[in-house]
Amino acid sequence: MLTVMKANFDVQQIRKDFPILKQEVNGRQLIYLDNAATSQKPQVVIDAINRYYKEQNANVHRGVHFLSQLATREYDDARVKVQRFINAAESHEIIFTRGTTESINLVAYSYGRKFVREGDEIIISAMEHHSNIVPWQILCEQTGAKLRVIPINDDGELLIDEFALMLNPRVKLVAVAHLSNALGTLNPVKRIIELAHSHDIPVLLDGAQAAPHLKIDVRDLDCDFYAFSGHKMCGPTGIGVLYGKSELLNMMPPFMGGGDMIASVTFEKTTYNVLPAKFEAGTPHIEGAIVLGVAIDYLNSVGLDRVAAYEHELLGYATEVIGAIPGIKIIGTAREKASVLSFTLDGIHPHDMGTILDQEGIAIRAGHHCAQPVMKRFGIPATARASFAFYNTREEIDALAEGIQKAVEVFNG
Amino acid sequence: MADLSELYQQVILDHNKKPRNFKVINPADREQEGYNPLCGDQITIYLKLSDDLIEDVGFQGSGCAISKASASMMTTAVKGKTKEEAELLFDEFHRMVKGELNPETDPHHLGRLTILAGVREFPARVKCASLSWHTLRAALGGNNETVSTELTEE
Among A233, A333, B77, B102, which residue's beta carbon has the most beta carbons within 10 A? Predict the structure, then answer.
């Protein structure tokens, strides 16, 4: 099955879609392995940004004139594209935000304000990105609720039995990463959701890393909220999505007040608009939403199933090649992984590694990956992280291995 | 193109492997923590003072080769100096790594610290080289708040 998919996957053809990959950095061909931070953009996405401002720009939901209607139609179409992309039941269950961080904050503030009280509990996991920790800490500080953390094992896998024991009637929400940005662990989210739902507890999935690498089906997962960002999936920065089941979103108060989110306003009383407008105060990132729709069209044309299969094979190759270098320790060795290879190398700090690789034109991330508790769990200050996309190649991974060898030479003479 | 071999000179690699004054001073007259939130580099500096004189200095912490070597070289440079002399070194060092002071043409008192001049070609690494210096400065100023390079380098 895998070989068939590989044969169909012409990575050299795909690379032609991404003009930035032709660029040289420090006199070398760019090798971009920092996709977990942000993905590169295909030409169709870059063109769509241009086209929006040249041909479609107007405010949405406001005007009777031609351009406003055009922009509104494109904006609403984008919402339907997102709906289909994650298989949501209704397009009004798609709320446009600035990104995953804002999506999670929206739930923390709005759902939290409505449903979380002193003595209640919120459950997150030990492998969360700061954006799925801090909003809940703020909520807990304000309400007197308690934040509880699902532990992980030395491979970076959630301890599901421990999680099951943490569930009780005080728990008001479970919020976990679908795919870990620091470890690459693909969490058993369906099982987590089943367990939480057996106690009538809703589940939010942080899908920032998962959305560009896996086919997401929110109805199959049965998650209550799903948050992700456009810029990690070939779209522009500043646009993201919160999916929420409509019965929950309907019960939640607005996150921000302003234009577009109201039905009527007097100084005595304001009535709120229906979904999704209730959660989209002010002029939205119209271009961002429309172009995210174009990015989704692009990803669909490549095929996320094929992307997942190709990247799986690429990660396997990278794990083998990089893991074979003496002194390398791979951080995050879960059985189910995707797209991320985090590692340390004896005697060489990840930052020094990052600088030396940069001189070879290789972009990786060095640091704590906005997941300091994960670093603490593994007793390390930082890791070097190579993260892959479907436009990366085996040759680039070979170059990464050579770059790491070069760092060893610099340090050990 | 920036030169890697200038950044990772033998002396720097040696200080990274065998940092000088890598010790806790207990009791210390001053103890100051410094932190680079972007990369997680962390340092604690201990000072033994006699009036205005830095009698002894030690450091602990974790970080990249540049931050560790810079801290190590700093301790050897300021030991036995007065507060005022250390302040002057801070200023000159800071200007050197930011490329505002050319150790080959401008007057300075940096001595062996000029080995770190290569950092100026790597703007992303200036914070690594200057973390220990900012922390020392805060220690001398007696301000006990943790130093963050995010606040001091912007």
Answer: A233
Dist. CA A305–CA A307, nearest whole Å:
5
Each residue of A198-247: pLDDT tens digit?
999 999 999 999 999 999 999 999 999 999 999 999 999 999 999 999 99
Q: Which two tokens stand for residue B110?
A: 């940096």
Last residue of a domain, one of A283, A301, A319: A301
pLDDT in tens, A282-332: 999 999 999 999 999 999 999 999 999 999 999 999 999 999 999 999 999
What is the per-residue pLDDT for B151? 55
Residues A182 and A324 in one domain: no
Residue range of the domain that includes A338:
2-32+303-412
The mean pLDDT of B36-65, rounded to a whole number, is: 92
Whether A294 and A325 map to the same domain: the answer is no
Cβ-Cβ contacts under 8 Å, A382 against chain B = 39-40
Give DSSP secondary structure letters for A58-121: --SSS--SHHHHHHHHHHHHHHHHHHHHTT-S-GGGEEEESSHHHHHHHHHHHHHHHH--TT-E
Whether A234 is catalytic is: no
Whether A381 and B41 lie within 8 Å, measured CB to CB? yes
3-state secondary structure of A241: strand
- Going along chain B from its start, the domains and CATH numbers come out as 4-143 (3.90.1010.10)
* B51 vs A: CB within 8 A: no
Q: Are residues A151 and A237 both part of a single domain? A: yes
Among A301, A316, A331, the domain boundary falls at A301
Which B residues in the span 114-133 are in contact with A, Cβ-Cβ below 8 Å? 122, 124-125, 128
Q: Residue A22 falls within a domain, yes or no?
A: yes
Residues of chain A with pLDDT under 70: 1-7, 413
Position A1 scores a pLDDT of 43
In a domain, A39, yes or no: no
CB contact (8 A) between residue B40 and residue A382:
yes
Question: What ipTM, to 2 d.p.?
Answer: 0.88
What's the CATH code of the domain at A340? 3.90.1150.10
Cβ separation of B40 and A366 shorter than 8 Å?
Answer: no
Strand, helix or coil for residue A333: coil
